[in-house]
Amino acid sequence: MTTYQAYGTETTGSQVVSDFSDQVKGKIVVITGVSPKSLGQMLATNIARHQPERIIFASRTSSKLDTVASEVKKSSPNVKVDTVILDLSSQASIRKAAEHISKLVDQIDILINNAAVVDSELRHTEEGIEMQFGVGHIGHFLFTNLLMPLLESSARSSKGATRIINVSSKGHHIGPVRFHDYNFEGKEVPEEEQPGDARLKQVPGYNVWVAYGQTKSANILFSLALNDRFGAKGICSYAMHPGAIQTDLSRSLSPQDAAFLERIVDGSWITLDQGTSTILVAALDPALSKPQESIYLSDCQFADAEPYARDLDIANRLWTLSEKLTSPRQHL
Length: 332
What we know:
The chain is α/β, with parallel strands linked by helices. The chain has one domain: NAD(P)-binding Rossmann-like Domain (Rossmann fold), CATH 3.40.50.720.
């Protein structure tokens, strides 16, 4: 159970971070997916107002990172802000970014894996992995594990305050991880890995929403596996649905796919500030320092994920696949 049961859809991140300001002060925070007018920028702005020791922005475009850093420094001039180039579609870039961060700090208290892509066309990472899965899960899997020594350093003294936050979505309801064809190569997919919507089962080849559902299910499973492996060391991981937020994330959608999204959301968009609230509850609420029955949140409270996204056996299977896909010797 969270500390504030009154929190809900309309709760803002600025309110959450104010209520838990003592959980921010003196902390070292890393956020991926930071760009102007994005969820990442709003997260950074809200956190910076409450005296963290340092915030590290990790994202792909230097000019966008600099813009956000400049804005954050204007509103919170006493906070140390660092920017690190991180292209999650390149494992070489991920390794370089993790090395850079390891030279900047000797511990990380909160890691927010916020970056994502959504694309109507089938694209691939440098390693040949389907782009949504490769960036949204595999890239964060490698990045998180490379930073694990810094997270473990924090956990030795944080008593459950060390958090790894994976931004998922209600989109995980679309379908599970497609172990038999995660790369959309036209391989046969068994019934248990098919999307729940019969219309999507009939779509040949790549479909943006099936790929999206797979990635968002993977985000939740990643948190489940992290807790199983590192919970005893004092590291807690949570995944959540931040809400329907109008950002630049949908820029690569076709008009048809963008119209589909509009129909699904049906006007229930929330603000960027409201979109950070559930993420910040997961990252800061001291009640979440203790083991919970669920690791998935929506509208600032615990919610039920699909069975295939809360099965430890499936989470371990995904971990094994993720290790294979991030091995330096692996070539697709």
